[in-house]
């Protein structure tokens, strides 16, 4: 029994570790045609720090970025709250602590241009542990290498614990949803059976009335 519990705990810790390391950082490069919008979403838990940085690659290095190559950027939550908005920019960044869990979306819009042009955008989005700047922590705190590593380990453990609680909440939500769905399916099946029996009864009554009128029975 103890070995089984330890195995289950190890699986949970490994899963949470993979969740922390893989789902909290996103760095990519994409092309955006003029007159079009591209949105990127990130699932962020409540209370987590999130930071983002974006740059439009200048096709003419050494020259200012023309207005036709600039973007309009907007970051919103699934509830419609706006956390960052910038118009006609070539580079920028944002940082905030998520007040609510859910999907947050960063949308990039390139204005119409004749003839059409394509912008290349570099975008980096980090949240949770990945959003912390450890180099600044080391400089500001004047800590030794070992102390810094211990702090990293401690924060990683705390992040894993928070993720475990978060996954447990999500599991409970899914269980509640399954129970609700099963209950509704049971009522739907009962109503379907009731309708079928009612239709069958009406058919029998109709046929009986018809045969009685024809004096067949």
Automatic annotation (TrEMBL):
Alphabetically ordered keywords of this record: Membrane, Signal, Transmembrane, Transmembrane helix
A Pfam family assignment: EMP24_GP25L
Domain (GOLD): residue spans on this chain: 37-152
Membrane-spanning intervals of the chain: 185-205
Localization in the cell: Membrane
UniProt xrefs under PANTHER family: TRANSMEMBRANE EMP24 DOMAIN-CONTAINING PROTEIN
Entry protein name: Transmembrane emp24 domain-containing protein 10
């Amino acid at each position: 029994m103890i070995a089984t519990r330890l195995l289950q705990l190890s699986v949970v810790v490994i899963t949470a570790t993979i969740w922390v390391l893989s789902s909290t950082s996103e760095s990519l490069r994409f092309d955006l045609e003029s007159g079009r919008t591209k949105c990127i979403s990130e699932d962020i838990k409540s209370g987590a720090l999130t930071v983002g940085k974006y740059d439009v690659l200048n096709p003419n290095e050494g020259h200012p970025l023309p207005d036709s190559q600039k973007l309009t950027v907007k970051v919103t939550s699934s509830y419609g709250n706006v956390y960052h908005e910038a118009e006609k920019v070539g580079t920028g960044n944002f940082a905030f602590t998520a007040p609510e869990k859910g999907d947050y979306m960063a949308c990039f819009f390139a204005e119409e241009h004749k003839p059409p042009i394509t912008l290349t955008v570099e975008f980096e989005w980090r949240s949770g542990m990945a959003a912390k700047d450890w180099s600044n922590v080391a400089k500001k705190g004047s800590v030794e290498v070992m102390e810094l590593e211990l702090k990293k380990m401690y924060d990683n453990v705390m992040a894993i614990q928070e993720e475990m609680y978060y996954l447990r909440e999500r599991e409970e939500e899914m269980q509640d949803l399954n129970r609700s769905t099963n209950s509704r399916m049971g009522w739907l099946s009962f109503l379907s059976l009731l309708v079928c029996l009612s239709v069958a009864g009406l058919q029998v009554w109709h046929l009986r009335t018809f045969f009685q009128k024809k004096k067949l029975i």
